[in-house]
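hiii so my PI (J.) wants the whole complex modelled not just the main chain, which honestly fair. so below is everything: two entries, each one labled with what it is. i double checked the lines twice but i was tired so who knows lol
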Amino acid sequence: MGGITAVGGYLPLLRLDRKVAARELAWSGLPMPRAGQRAVAGWDEDPLTMAVEAARPLCADSPPAALRFASTSAYFTDRAQSTIALHALALPQSVRTADLANSRRAATTGLLDLLLAGADEILAVAEKRPTQAGSSAQLAFGDGAAAVRCGENAAAILAGYSAISHDLVDRYASQQRPTGYAYEERFVRDVAVAELVVPAVREACQRAGIEPSALAQVACAEPVGATWRTAAKKLGCSAPNHCEMLTDRVGDLGAAHPLYGLGLALAAARPGDNVLVIGFGSGIDALVLKVLAPVPGAAEIAAALGEGEVIAHYARFLSLAGSLELDWGMRAEFEQKAQATVLERIGRDMIGFIGGRDSLGNVQFPKSAMPVNPALEAPEVFADVRLADLDAAIVSVTADRLNFTPDPPFDFGLVQFDNGARVLMELVDRPSGGFAVGQRVRMRLRIKSQNARLGFRTYFWKAAPLVRPHMGEA
Amino acid sequence: MASGIRDKVAIVGMGCTRFGERWDVGADGLMVEAFAEALADAGIERSRIGAVWVGNALDDINVGNSALPAAHALRLDKVPVTRVENMCATGTEALRGAAYAVASGAVDIALAIGVEKLKDTGYGGLPLRTKGVQNDLWMPYGSAPGTFAQLAGAYAARHGIDPGDLKRAMAHVSWKSHRNGALAPKAHMRGAVDMEKILGAPMIADPLGLFDCCGVSDGAAAAIVTTPEIAKALGKANPVTIKAIQLASSNGWEMQFGAWDGASVPNTRAAAARAYAEAGIRDPRAELDLTEVHDCFSITELVIMEDLGLSDEGRAPADIMDGRYDSDGAIPCQLDGGLKCFGHPVGASGLRMAYEVYNQLQGRAGERQRGKADLGLTHNLGGSPFNSVAAVAVFGRLD
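here's the output for the full assembly
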């Protein structure tokens, strides 16, 4: 029987202390969460880049049969993120791709489909949901991603499940209201507990042949706070809800929340444990999983919670969240227009970070008709070499304060790979002391350029420090 | 090796506008201003110009592409005009084209003119432009100071120099150029600046502060070149001649292949070696009386001193602090203030450098005159340290 073989997760570097925002907005008297932190995506991160980061560890050995992407905040509405991700992950084009959207429940719905089919597939889920300054959602939400791979030789298997479709309008987002609209929490909690959570958990446990009290770990993505705690009392379940802790530490990750929470639950679980994961939105999915062995990737997901840097200034957060539009001056007027012909010709090498190995063994990026290797004097065909998964070292670097970037300074420099490839690259996730010559870096998929007028983005890889700091000031 | 063009081409007239924020005039007016001075200096009529090379690096911003803007501005009637562009080395490239035309015998008298009207961009610094639809997919859009700032960290790493000591040597470069520029009537910036102000200036691209960077300017410069024989016939008994012009371009090696540590500009070294050979220079430190180099940033000038062989490897900071390249030093550099203070209208800068050397060689540099000068060098650099076009030219007298 198929099941979960591995999990992955990604959180952006930056965190906002909710109390910082609450302090800045105290004069308004607006209600908002004041404890904990939320994860904040960089200006050049979006659901696609974060989903790719979450899925990367799951692609190491062999390609899956299919790659699914889920989000309620994907940038493109008629260009499959899953297919772009496929190229970023350098998966074969024979891998089937599909996007799931329009519900925070998309991840658990997708996971349930994978588990019921028993197929070897990857599901990558990410959110960077737009929110309005002053809204409770802006502080309650977080940006991040989670991924899961299913297939044979599983570490956790589906023991029971329940799925209830129910158009409960606890909150919504629409084309006219992309930042979302939320209804009264007490109403949502009462209905969610009585009509959805309790019946779904009972049914899932019944199918699994266990009582709710036998659940060892829970990952319940709640529509509003205290939903699980209220339901758990009725169910007689005392297992910890890892999604609640996740909300406190990085925020509600939307569609990715139940999957990241599941990763945390699996990290805490022992073989033999029953783990419940709940996805909520336009109904509910409740899945009971039986843990057979430690789940690869779960420990890394848990460790990532403690890594990051705290944003010192609320205004910087507002700018990154798209709630504060600064006048960046004339240099920000520059526009790039990506051409489909060029993307078709070399785009897959770009987003896959594929360089070429020449006949003498040297690797270069990008490929060229004539090798850069001085020892070669004629055109030749290169062998593909993926650079995205390799470490490199900084040759030269600066923090550019003249060049426009939405989150200054603009760090860039020459990066040297051990296989010979040398690439001029942007650097991201800047350490507090800046970057230095000789420093080792790893590759991260990011937005390269965005053209707001044409509504288009291109993606490329940027170099980041090998390890992230444990919570310091950014 | 080819015999080169040493003493095959004479400069009989040069002109240079006042550089700066020329709100009063467009690119056409700037070209007319430089051309008129050059014609008067040469003592010839416009009709004797047989061919023109016009240098302009940022055509889409100001001047416009092709031969036509220059042909229109100077009302050149059916004269062959060629527009050249090689980033910040454009001015020297225009001179190279004109000089080669004369040396080949194709033309008796040729004009090289460089022009840029950068202050029509609406902001300071060089404008941002596409790097091409393929490169746009991966190449970072760093600013010019961002690319050259990387020389500093790499240089400090190669030579184990304390970043603070390097910063002080860089500041001396700017301090010296400001002091020189104060004596150049056509310079963009004519105010002396003290070291404390330079060292305390806001950061533009680590470790380059505001005063480590040249600004950008409006301006034009022109040279009329011909054969030594025609020059003599025009009354120039011992004319200024071109001893060498050499150019070297990156083929992607620095950016893509490795081995280079980022602490020098290899193309400057290649162009200089060829130029010294063409000019017959064996010991540049002893033979050169002055240099005008591409000091787009203070660190660039510092590194150039080693790339040109004027300082030993790793010794440029010490030589700079010792005053070797000051106006009263052994090999003065930027007697007119350089890019830093005379200004940097990109397409004109290479010819502006030649203009200063040309005047120094003839003892016409006024307050800036450095006694008797026999041999001067210009160095013009386009692009970035890791992807560059470097031009080195040497000028002297015929006899």
